[in-house]
């Protein structure tokens, strides 16, 4: 029986943590707890446990808690946008911020460089090739007031606009351009997004495409194409090397033919390159003897041709 293939689990992406880091809660507790404890202990020591005293202590605790509840603390990387009865009051922080309870509202904005994941997008390139692309957007808030007041949720809006821009840019490119001009594509998408979100008080730092997924059959064809291209370059390189070697050998042969001792020196170099291994048997044949045999053969051939030529001349 054939085993069933389990579907591969979807890719998981790191998501940034959103929200304000509450640094004022411990401070509010301390500011409320210490005076309340002092008042209660003082009332118990000096006035005894009377109902009126307990009522006064409880009322003081409630009033003091309401006053202390307006204390907020903004971290070094945060700005607090304060609204009073729905109207913009100002931007405060970092540090301790006090707002009037039940009247003021504060929203903290992270001013650091933030990373926003761009989920995998299915796009069709200009040459009708399907692909899935995911990336990450790095941005920062340059104007906290505009980012809070002018747009409802700047994180969600930036993510949607970046996805749409990614599909638009990739849809106008061919597959070869998508794979080879990655840096230019990232810069183009970042420029398009920056032109729009600048009005929201947000600045784009950079956009990076993490992965480009293509169909498996297309990957196999591209692999075969790359292999054939490498084989072509290797064949051309080898042919050029053989041609260059032949030219050099021909030039070396001409030089050796013009020099009497060049062939002897080359012979000695060849013998030296054989090495002192006992498995090699070298038989030396003097080059002068070969030249003498060659000259003797040429002289003998010339003498054999002279009688034949003389006899022909006498007959004529």
Q: How are the elements arranged and paired?
A:
Blueprint: H1 25-46, H2 51-68, E1 71-74, E2 78-84, E3 87-92, E4 95-98, E5 104-110, E6 114-124, E7 130-141, H3 144-149, H4 154-171, H5 175-180, H6 182-197, E8 202-213, H7 216-258, H8 262-274, H9 287-315
Helix pairs in contact: 1-2, 4-6
Q: Can you tell me about this structure?
A:
With 316 residues, this protein is α+β, with helices and mostly antiparallel strands. It has three domains: 25-110, no CATH class; 114-214, Tetrahydropterin Synthase, Chain A, CATH 3.30.479; 231-272. It contains nine helices and eight strands. The chain has helices spanning 25-46, 51-68, 144-149, 154-171, 175-180, 182-197, 216-258, 262-274, 287-315, and strands at 71-74, 78-84, 87-92, 95-98, 104-110, 114-124, 130-141, 202-213. A three-stranded antiparallel beta sheet has the order 3-2-5. A hairpin with a 2-residue loop joins strand 2 (78-84) and strand 3 (87-92). The longest helix has 43 residues, at 216-258. The protein starts with 24 loop residues before the first helix and ends with a helix.
Q: What are the key terms here?
A:
3-stranded antiparallel beta sheet; 8 strands; Tetrahydropterin Synthase, Chain A; 9 helices; single chain; disordered C terminus; about 325 residues; 3 domains; about 55% helix; alpha+beta; disordered N terminus
């Amino acid at each position: 029986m054939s085993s069933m293939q389990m579907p591969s689990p979807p890719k998981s992406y790191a998501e940034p943590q959103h929200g304000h880091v509450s640094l004022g809660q411990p401070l509010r507790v301390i500011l409320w707890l210490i005076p309340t404890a002092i008042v209660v202990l003082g009332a118990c020591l000096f006035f005894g446990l009377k109902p009126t005293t307990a009522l006064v202590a409880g009322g003081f605790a409630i009033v003091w808690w309401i006053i202390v509840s307006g204390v907020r603390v903004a971290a070094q990387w945060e700005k607090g946008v304060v609204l009073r009865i729905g109207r913009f009051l100002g931007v405060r922080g970092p540090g301790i911020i006090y707002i009037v309870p039940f009247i003021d509202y504060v929203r903290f904005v992270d001013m650091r460089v933030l990373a926003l994941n761009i989920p995998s997008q299915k796009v069709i390139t200009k040459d009708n090739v399907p692909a899935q692309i995911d990336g990450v957007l790095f941005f920062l808030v340059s104007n906290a007031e505009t980012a809070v007041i002018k747009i409802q949720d700047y994180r969600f809006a930036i993510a949607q606009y970046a996805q749409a821009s990614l599909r638009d840019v990739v849809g106008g490119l061919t597959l070869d351009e998508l794979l080879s001009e990655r840096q230019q594509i990232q810069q183009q998408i970042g420029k398009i997004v920056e032109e729009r979100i600048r009005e929201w008080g947000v600045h784009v730092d950079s956009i990076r495409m993490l992965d480009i997924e293509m169909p498996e059959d297309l990957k196999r064809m591209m692999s075969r194409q790359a292999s054939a291209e490498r084989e072509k370059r290797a064949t051309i390189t080898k042919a050029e090397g053989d041609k260059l070697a032949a030219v050099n050998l021909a030039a070396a042969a001409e030089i050796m033919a013009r020099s009497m001792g060049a062939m002897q020196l080359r012979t000695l170099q060849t013998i030296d390159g054989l090495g002192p291994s006992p498995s090699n048997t070298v038989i030396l044949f003097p080059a002068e003897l070969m030249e003498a045999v060659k000259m003797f053969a040429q002289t003998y051939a010339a003498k054999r041709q002279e009688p034949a030529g003389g006899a022909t001349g006498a007959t004529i």
